[in-house]
Design a protein that fits this description.
This is Damage-inducible protein CinA. This protein is α/β, with parallel strands linked by helices and 171 residues long. The chain has six helices and five strands; from the N terminus they run αβαβαααβββα. α1 runs parallel beside α6.
């Protein structure tokens, strides 16, 4: 599979940063369907940095694989801040060696959007051992490819920011 050059560049920089800081990554992906993990593993040296990836497209997979509570999914819907938080924390908990986990859940389109959850809405979560979980959301413009690409780039940036958070704490 061909990965866009800008995604490969961001993934390569992140692999180098993780290597330098002794970090390992896990992903919990819904709307990207494994593209974040695919971008990371497209880079030489990724085996020392990538622990595992969970593709949890369905609510059942979110619950069974990474422990997102069914009640949370029913109350807030899969595309929500609480679910993004639970996804990254669940992935971090279940990954054997990861020190950081990122999650994405969103509506890539072209259908599936609503007035309160439009096409392009993506919720992110990033958890790190010994660090505070952060969440973020954005509504990206464009077609399905554009939304998923922007999501991958933002997820890679969130992991980098999480590494900086640890460094800022004297870690």
């Amino acid at each position: 599979m061909q990965i866009d050059d800008d995604i490969l560049a961001a993934a390569s920089a992140l692999i180098a940063k993780c290597t330098a800081n002794g970090e390992m990554i896990a992903t919990a992906e819904s709307c990207t369907g494994g593209l974040i993990t695919g971008a990371l593993t497209g880079v030489d040296g990724s085996s020392s940095v990538v622990d595992c990836g969970f593709v949890t497209y369905s609510n059942e997979a979110k619950h069974e694989l990474i422990g997102v509570k069914t009640a949370l999914l029913e109350q807030h819907g899969a595309v929500s801040e609480p679910v993004a938080r639970a996804m990254c924390e669940g992935a971090l908990d279940r990954a054997p060696n990861a020190s950081i986990a990122v999650s994405v859940t969103g509506i890539a389109g072209p259908g599936g959007g609503t007035a309160t959850k439009p096409v392009g809405l993506v919720h992110f979560g990033c958890a790190g051992k010994g660090r505070q979980t952060v969440t973020y959301h954005e509504v990206f413009a464009g077609d399905r490819h554009a939304v998923r690409k922007a999501t991958v780039l933002r997820a890679l940036a969130l992991i980098s920011e999480m590494i900086d958070q640890k460094k800022g704490l004297g870690g």
